[in-house]
Specification:
Oligomer: single chain
Strand content: 35-45%
Order of helices and strands: HHHHEEEEEEEEEEEEEEEEEEEEE
Largest sheet: 8 strands, antiparallel
Structural class: alpha+beta
Strand order of the largest sheet: 1-2-3-7-8-9-10-11
Distance between the termini: 122 Å
Amino acid sequence: MKFNIIYVIFAGMLLSVFSQKSFAQTDSLSNEDLPNQLTTDTKPIILLNGDKKNKDVISQSSSDGDAMLFLDLKKNGSSSKKRNKKNKEPKGYYYGLETKRIFRKYEQGRKTIVETFYYLKDFKNPDPLVDVYYVFDIKSEKIKTLPRISAENHLVLHGPYERKENGKVVESGIYYVGTKHGRWENYHSSGVLTNKEIYYKGFPKNTKFVYYDKQKTKIKEIIPMQSNYIHGHYIIFYESGAIKEEGNYQYGRRVKRWMSYYDGKAKNAKGQRHVETQYREDPFDKTTKPYTLREWDEKGKYIKDNRN
């Protein structure tokens, strides 16, 4: 019995000694040792500068230095803010171009439609290689898609676009000088995503560009692709850079009206019209054969006119 009591007392003394030594070691840690303890697999997004709206922080990927990044930002927060201000475009500017905003609200049946969008303050012609342009028609006060526009009648859309129906977003995207750009999304009134498309300055994401030369200075074809099919507005060029022929594909088949041109020698421009051809309206129509609607000579005089 005495032996057991002595053993317990001895064990308690040892535990006390080790505890004191452990605390002493913790207190004696130098500042150089501390960073090694500040590693994490989870980004402290909310803590960084205390700014939940910091998009640059949110877009960063996680790394072992994230906790140290927090410490650096606390020390140098003012310089970080200065860098963000330098990189940020002035209010009302998108892609370096000044814009003005339009807020449009109207009734459509039982729906209340609200559209918010921007247009270029100074008129600028869109890329001539894109088949249609998105503009705000001044006379009708509506957004329209047109093959030809003018500074007198149209405002060129440029910047974010959003459409709401009864307070819920049903469409959103970005315009770039009258063309669709970036990601465009459509939603059901329930909030479910129904469609998503990605563009680059008017061209679908999967568009292929074929060139005459290895240096890629002379474009030969613009081939729109969708699900391994040629689908959309197709253009082929002369080596001079002038447009040779253009028209629409649907699921790999030519549809509707196509137009060919004489070589006008002007880059990205259409010369004198040559032949207008009518193809099937429905890509799955296997009976309708293409036929010539109109044909012109190089001076613009009719050779054929089969429209009647």
